[in-house]
Specification:
globular, 168 residues, Rossmann fold, alpha/beta, 4-stranded parallel sheet, 6 strands, single chain, 2 domains
Length: 168
């Protein structure tokens, strides 16, 4: 819990995650972070080690996290295969949670990172869509999004949901 001193405006801690499979997934949250007033926000950025220099050049604290390699991502995408296997998702989530627990950010922004929260009703999936993107359009139009539909059809996804519901 943050403590506040009278007359002093504390900076809010923002943690940005950019999936390292492409520059686009790092560039979008980086541009958002650059737009924030450094007098009001303490920015931390987590991504693949290959983007460290780009992030630190803007004066943000950098935290290395693993993810899919770009070549692996492109091969899976080209084959129409699931982009993430269970092991990769688990490792990514554990690494992200370690950083979040250490930093205790006020806000987390992610681009192409998947976040789940265990809840009494099951598992909640949190998403913030960038405005004027295809995902945003599909969501606002009420159209089905392929990956969401694919998740619903995968029995392992529902097993994971059920395991989270029954594990305390």
């Amino acid at each position: 819990m943050k403590t506040f001193e009278f007359g002093v405006s504390p900076r809010l801690r923002v943690l940005c995650f950019g999936e390292g499979v492409s520059l686009a997934h790092v560039g979008r949250p980086l541009e958002l972070a650059r737009a924030l007033d450094p007098a009001r926000y303490e920015i931390h950025f987590a991504s693949s080690e290959r983007y460290r220099g780009m992030v630190e050049a803007h004066g943000f604290a950098f935290h290395a996290v693993d993810g899919l390699l770009p070549q692996e991502f492109m091969a899976r995408l080209a084959a129409g295969a699931p982009l993430y296997d269970e092991d990769t998702l688990r490792r990514s989530a554990e690494a992200d949670l370690r950083i979040m627990r250490a930093l205790r950010p006020d806000l987390v922004i992610g681009d192409f990172r998947v976040y789940f929260e265990r809840h009494e009703l099951g598992v909640l999936v949190h998403r913030i869509l960038s405005r004027n993107t295809l995902k945003d359009f599909l969501y606002r139009s009420g159209l089905k999004v392929e990956e969401d539909e694919a998740l619903q059809q995968n029995p392992k996804f529902w097993e994971m949901i059920e395991a989270a519901r029954t594990t305390k």
